[in-house]
């Protein structure tokens, strides 16, 4: 089973996992890492290594973070780089986490997808899931039904 780690500034990751649990039902093999104002950023490396070890069942791990290039992303990458070469191949860090991405990762986990298939699906879901709507856009489509 693929392992999932969701890491965000503040408690956002707890909310995402809670919402996924509400929508899907009970989730398995998923951990969160929070970063608060008072936390030492250097401690994140150890937190990531601990959580990777806990969720790694030799099928791969997806680490979701909120912001590319920010502390969580950088420390996740450093943690992955400290793993063995074999482990590194199966751990992916994905920035820009949102609820649809995590739900898709859980679905991929449930159907026993490979880590490569799961990562590709999650990224596709992220891109497909960004939509924009405004009343101005719909003025031409006043007859459109929902």
Summarize the structure.
With 146 residues, the protein is α/β, with parallel strands linked by helices.
Describe the structure.
The termini are far apart. With 146 residues, the protein is α/β, with parallel strands linked by helices. The chain has a four-stranded parallel sheet, sandwiched between helices. The chain has seven helices and four strands; from the N terminus they run E-H-E-H-E-H-H-E-H-H-H. It has helices spanning 12-24, 43-55, 71-81, 85-88, 99-110, 115-128, 135-138, and strands spanning 3-9, 30-35, 61-65, 91-95. The protein is 49% helix and 16% strand. It has one domain: 3-Layer(aba) Sandwich (Rossmann fold).
Termini gap? 38 Å
CATH class assignment: Alpha Beta
User: What is the ordering of alpha helices and beta strands?
Assistant: EHEHEHHEHHH
Q: List segments where confidence is low: pLDDT < 50 over at least 5 consecutive residues.
A: none
Beta-strand content bin: 15-25%
CATH homologous superfamily assignment: Phosphotransferase system, mannose-type IIA component
CATH topology: Rossmann fold
Task: Work out the helicity level.
Answer: 40-55%
CATH architecture: 3-Layer(aba) Sandwich
Overall number of structural domains: 1
Tell me about the largest β-sheet.
4 strands, parallel
Count of DSSP strands: 4
How do the strands and helices of this protein lay out in sequence?
Blueprint: E1 3-9, H1 12-24, E2 30-35, H2 43-55, E3 61-65, H3 71-81, H4 85-88, E4 91-95, H5 99-110, H6 115-128, H7 135-138
Parallel strand pairs: 1-2, 1-3, 3-4
